[in-house]
Amino acid sequence: MIGGENYVQLLRETSKLTPLVGLTMCAKIYGFCMKQDLFTPMTSIDFMLFLNIREMAMPVSIKSMKKAKVCYVIYRLSVYVLNPMLKEQWISAILSTCDISRVYYDTHYKSVVAGTSKSDNKTGIGRFVEDLEYALNSGSMENF
């Protein structure tokens, strides 16, 4: 099995030939992540490069206390990786790029929504999930 940095290198080479996450999806998720203040400021181009496991001008940095939310975004976004056979490799490469351990991810990627109820939908985590789903649905309108 290929691990850590090898995933990143493999997907960097693959993404030179074909995008892993489409441009519209990148734009929608960028807007969501910046609105939610999940990452330190970065350009939309760097964000698109990040999601496609490409070299970026600046390293990705998750804001304090936002790591579990980023794990949830990665989990939900992984469904939309353009080549489903690369989904697990993409998750591993993104985690490596974000400096999130697989153990942390496996423990926390659903913890954000654990215990939420219908009454939470308009505030707090319910709103976070609703806004993410809207961004994902909007971004999935493309096929390339």
Care to describe what's here?
- This protein is mainly α and 144 residues long.
- The protein is 57% helix and 0% strand.
- It is built from seven helices and no strands.
- The chain has helices at 4-17, 23-36, 44-51, 67-77, 87-98, 102-108, 124-139.
- Helix 2 (23-36) crosses helix 3.
- The longest helix is centred in the last third of the chain and has 16 residues, at 124-139.
- The protein is globular.
- The two termini are 29 Å apart.
- The model has no long low-confidence stretch (mean pLDDT 86).
Keywords:
globular, 0% strand, 144 residues, mainly alpha, single chain
Tell me the number of strands.
Answer: 0
Query: What proportion of the residues is helical, as a percent range?
Result: 55-70%
Strand fraction equals under 5%
Computed Rg: 15 Å
Structural class: mainly alpha
Uncertain regions: pLDDT < 50 for 5+ in a row? none
**H/E order of the elements?**
HHHHHHH
Number of helices: 7
